[in-house]
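Continuing the series of single-chain predictions for the mutant panel. This is the parent chain; the variants come on the following pages.
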Amino acid sequence: MHIIETKQAPGAIGPYSQGYETLGLVFTSGQLPVNPETGEMPGGIAAQAEWSCRNVGAILEAAGSGLDKVIKTTCFLADMGDFAAFNEVYAKYFSSKPARSCVAVKDLPKGALCEIEAIAVK
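Parent structure:
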């Protein structure tokens, strides 16, 4: 097992790692829409979805994988009313159409509108 860590994605804000690689699979922790350089979150679901996707991609790249190798994602939305706008951005990054679960949750850390986690092959 190997912990994945990159400065190209936000650092963990709790007792967990950005990702893990084991048995040829990469598991990312949920990625908030935080710009890793500034620590800031943009406003609006489209901009936030972009950053969550970019952050997942950065962790996968650091592990020697990529967005094109994702087999499963779990997406969390603060408001299911953002589903269509979220999907529009998500589709640009996950063009291989991995299996996915997408749920609305009561709250996300830091007041985020979305969060994405992924499982990919190496």
